[in-house]
Structures are given as structure tokens and as C-alpha cells.
Design goal:
This protein has a single domain, classed as ABC transporter involved in vitamin B12 uptake, BtuC (Orthogonal Bundle). It is mostly helical. It is a multi-pass membrane protein.
Length: about 325
């Protein structure tokens, strides 16, 4: 077994252990015997309900969202050739935010189940607009034009969001709840709504990996190897939109994950995206769950949402990564 294959196996084992910890640890203390009872022989007791109705859906959503954001971040950095890029650079996050605010302000939507589809639609529209703007001209889409278009569209949408929430208190309150980034309070119904899109995004990402390897050598070299650059970039944008759009719609914006995880994955795998993507997926899932567990423990009996914990843990860690120059080269 090769070194990278063995590393994937270790990550799978570590993720399984973190999943068990996520089910066992929480603001409400449940002994291990109670966790076992809730998993395999439930009788409807309070501890069983907490394990089966709250912690298991939360853990599953954390795994799926972590995988999506980790892979989306790796694709984003690869296609923009920007080590500081995160999935939000294509306007996906801000598009979802604007759609959520508009759904509350114009249509009075007040529930997560109600505006999850608005968030996903907003993410899709924003990414399409960015791609069209970045593709304008004879040269077609390039890392620079996509990044510039994404920054412009994100700034516009962020300004519109700020204007709306300042005008309407209900929009402000609901937007603050969504914007914090959380996997708590979501049931399996939310996961079921976005799971088909996330699975489709992972399939497209896997198909995009060989072409992305060629693009990392430069567009001219990629063309000489027979790679259709425009189609490869289009597939990458589609995968990023499906993965990040679905994750953001379900949980709100969770920062730093898509920024930090690809660097860690690349440190173990090297520049081959056929290995970077699965490593980033497992690392992203594990990091989301670890941050969520930490948020349950540090403020007992209250909780700190996973988006806040990842920002607190991710910022100093990313500063450390930036200082190690070999980790930020793409």
C-alpha cells in the first residue's frame, strides 16, 4: 500500500472516531452506555431522543458539509491558481446570502426549510454571472478574470444585503441566524434536500481532477496535452457551485474551512488533484466535527456555533500556513 493510500485509510479511521465523539459529546452529558443504548436499542428515553434525533443528524450534516467545502475549496484554489482563494470568491456565498435576505424581505419566508432553496438558487445565479463575466473576451475564462469578476459581484451583493437588512428588522434577525454558520438545529430533512446536489458535485469534481492537473502546468501546456480548457473550467465551476451552494444553503457560510483544508491536504499529497480532493474531503469533514465538538464543550450548557469556532481556530492556523511558504505554492 502506498503512502498516500495509507494516509487516506488513517483519515477514514480518524473520521470514524470523530463521528463517534460527535455523537457521544455534547452540552448534555450522556454516558457511553447511554449512547450505545440510543444507537442500537432505543426505547424512547430522553437520552435516546437526544442521540437519534439531534446528534446523529447533526453529525451526518457536519460530515457532508465538511466534505463539500473541503473539495470546493481545493477546486477553487486550483482553478484560480490563488492560494488565498476560498469557495466564496466566485460569489457563491454572497449570492446565497442575498437570496435569503430577499426571500425574507419580499416573501416573508421565516423558516430554514423555506429559504434553503432560495439560498441554493442565489448561489447558482451568482456563480453563473461570475463565470459569464469572467469568460467575456476572446481569451475566455482565466484565473485572473474569474477572481476579479467574483470580487466585483460579491461586493455588489454584499452591498445589497447590507441595504436590505438595515431597512428591515425581520430580515436582519433571520439573516444573523443564518449567517453565523451552524450545523445545529438542522434535521435529516435539510440534509435530504441538498444531498443530491452535493453528490452530483462530488462526481463532477472527480471528473474534473485530471484536467485540473493539466491546467496547473499552464493553459498552453494543457492545450498541447489535448485538454479542452474551457470545458475543464466549466466543469470546475459547476462542481464548486453544486458543492458550496448546497453546503451554504443548508448551514450558512462556514469560513476558513475551504481556505485552510486544501493547504493541509496538499502538504501530504503533493500537487496531484486526484489525491488532493479525497484528502481535502476527509480533512474537511473531520475539522467541521472537531470544531462543532469544541463549541459544545467550551460554553456548556450553551453552545458556540461551528462557524464561530472555525474562525477562532482557523485564523491563527492559516497565519501559520502562510508563513510556511512551501505550503502556499500552487
Amino acid at each position: 500500500m502506498g503512502r498516500r493510500s495509507f494516509g487516506l485509510l488513517l483519515l477514514l479511521v480518524a473520521l470514524a472516531a470523530v463521528c463517534l465523539a460527535s455523537i457521544a459529546i455534547g452540552s448534555k452529558e450522556i454516558p457511553l452506555s447511554g449512547v450505545w443504548h440510543g444507537l442500537f436499542t432505543p426505547t424512547g428515553a430522553e437520552d435516546d431522543v437526544v442521540v437519534r434525533e439531534l446528534r446523529i443528524p447533526r453529525t451526518l450534516l457536519g460530515v457532508v458539509v465538511g466534505i463539500a467545502l473541503g473539495v470546493g475549496g481545493a477546486l477553487m484554489q486550483g482553478h484560480t491558481r490563488n492560494p488565498l482563494a476560498d469557495p466564496g470568491i466566485l460569489g457563491v456565498t454572497h449570492g446565497a446570502a442575498l437570496a435569503v435576505v430577499l426571500s425574507i424581505f419580499l416573501f416573508g419566508v421565516s423558516s430554514l426549510v423555506g429559504y434553503i432553496w432560495f439560498a441554493f438558487a442565489g448561489a447558482m445565479v451568482a456563480s453563473v454571472v461570475v463565470f459569464l463575466l469572467g469568460s467575456a473576451g476572446r481569451a475566455g475564462p482565466s484565473p485572473v478574470t474569474l477572481a476579479l469578476a467574483g470580487a466585483a459581484v460579491s461586493a455588489l451583493m454584499n452591498g445589497l444585503v447590507s441595504a436590505i437588512v438595515l431597512l428591515d428588522q425581520q430580515s436582519l434577525d433571520a439573516f444573523r441566524f443564518w449567517q453565523v454558520g451552524a450545523i445545529a438545529g438542522r434535521d435529516l430533512g435539510v440534509l435530504a434536500q441538498v444531498l443530491p446536489f452535493l453528490l452530483a458535485g462530488l462526481v463532477v469534481a472527480a471528473l474534473n481532477a485530471p484536467g485540473l492537473n493539466a491546467l496547473s502546468l499552464g493553459e498552453d501546456v494543457a492545450r498541447s496535452l489535448g485538454v479542452n480548457v474551457g470545458r475543464t473550467r466549466s466543469l470546475g465551476i459547476l462542481a464548486i457551485t453544486l458543492l458550496v451552494g448546497g453546503a451554504v444553503a443548508a448551514c450558512g457560510p462556514i469560513g476558513f474551512l475551504g481556505l485552510v483544508v486544501p493547504h493541509v491536504a496538499r502538504a501530504f499529497t503533493g500537487p496531484d488533484y486526484r489525491w488532493i480532493l479525497p484528502y481535502a474531503a476527509l480533512l474537511g469533514a473531520g475539522l467541521v466535527l472537531l470544531a462543532d465538538i469544541a463549541g459544545r464543550v467550551v460554553a456548556r450548557p450553551a453552545e458556540v456555533e461551528v462557524g464561530v469556532m472555525l474562525a477562532l481556530l482557523g485564523a491563527p492556523f492559516f497565519i501559520f500556513l502562510v508563513r510556511r511558504k512551501r505550503l502556499v505554492k500552487i
